[in-house]
Design goal:
Structural class of chain A: mainly alpha
Shape of chain B: globular
Radius of gyration of chain A: 22 Å
Structural class of chain B: mainly alpha
Number of helices of chain A: 2
Oligomer: heterodimer
Low-confidence stretches of chain A: none
Order of helices and strands of chain B: HHHHHHHHH
Number of strands of chain A: 0
Distance between the termini of chain A: 68 Å
Largest sheet of chain B: none
Mean pLDDT of chain A: 91
Shape of chain A: rod-shaped
Chain lengths: ~55, ~250
């Protein structure tokens, strides 16, 4: 187990790279979903305000 | 063919199609990445020269490949938008930029971390591939800054498409830089005469990750294009119907 994590002495380089990759993938998913929710909510608020006024 | 092309360019049709396609791209993509990462870290044998440090290849190569692919999609979509005045194409170009920038950053960062134990340095200013990849990150940032600086979407589409097309010259420079100039980078490993220069146990996880990252990129792109289409079409009837449909959160 320690041997696997150690990666022949390169563990810090290998694991930090894979952790960064996971972060980039999670960030991309989160940012894309947040962008959609934000755009959708803005449109929803505007349309419902117009509906209530008419 | 043209009928299909025109139908695809219709925002409501594309919006619905993207909603269906996203899970079909995302789940197989993440499954392939899970396999490729596990096999790359724990199953593939260590490299005879680089030992376990070579395992960084399993994220560095897919990220570098996607950084270039995203740029080509951005430039081609921008070109289509300019020539055929197709709004959806501009939406695709604008959506590809932030994802491409994030993968370019990942390619540079993972390459830098890999370079430290192998080359003895985090960064080499004289290396043509590093510099052309860094230039691409600046092109992505410039593209997004230009878009956000122009309020008028039509003008922003045109100006950013021209920038994307001009910057596309950099993509073949990145790809062929290791052949044209002296570089710390090794030559092509996968696509070369005589087949890939890797053992199958090392190769398959890499291919799985390249395909997996590509599928996830496709899903992320469609997610962002949906938002962009919705923003641009916010005052149209189909969006109004979509928002007012009971129980439909799109």
């Amino acid at each position: 187990m320690t041997e696997t994590l150690g990666m022949s002495g390169y563990g810090i380089y290998v694991w930090s790279t894979f952790a960064l990759t996971a972060t980039v993938l999670v960030y991309n998913e989160w940012a894309a979903r947040r962008r959609f929710r934000s755009v959708y909510r803005d449109i929803e608020v505007r349309i419902k305000a117009l509906e209530n006024r008419s | 063919m043209w009928k299909w092309f025109h139908q695809l360019a219709s925002p409501p049709h594309f919006f619905r199609l993207a909603s269906v396609l996203i899970p079909w791209l995302a789940w197989p993509g993440y499954a392939l990445i899970a396999y490729g990462t596990f096999a790359g870290l724990f199953v593939a044998p260590p490299d005879y020269q680089q030992s376990d440090a070579f395992r960084i290849i399993y994220v560095h190569v897919p990220a570098a490949y996607l950084s270039m692919m995203a740029y080509m999609i951005m430039a081609i979509a921008g070109g289509i938008g300019l020539i055929w005045r197709m709004k959806l194409a501009h939406a695709v170009a604008a959506s590809a930029a932030p994802i491409g920038a994030s993968f370019t950053f990942l390619a540079l960062a993972s390459g830098s971390v890999w370079g430290r134990p192998m080359w003895g340095t985090w960064w080499e200013w004289g290396d043509p591939r590093l510099m052309s990849e860094l230039l691409m990150l600046f092109l992505y940032i410039g593209y997004m800054a230009l878009r956000s600086a122009i309020d008028d979407t039509t003008k922003a589409d045109k100006a950013s498409a021209v920038l994307a097309l001009v910057g596309a010259v950099n993509v073949p420079v990145i790809h062929y830089s290791v052949e044209w100039w002296s570089s710390l980078h090794q030559g092509a490993t996968l696509i070369r005469e005589g087949g890939p220069a890797m053992d199958a146990a090392m190769l398959y996880p890499l291919l799985a990750n390249i395909l997996g990252f590509s599928l996830v990129f496709g899903a992320l792109l469609l997610r962002r294009v949906r938002s962009e289409v919705l923003r641009r079409e916010g005052r149209t009837r189909w969006v109004r119907e979509l928002v007012l449909a009971p129980g439909d959160s799109a």
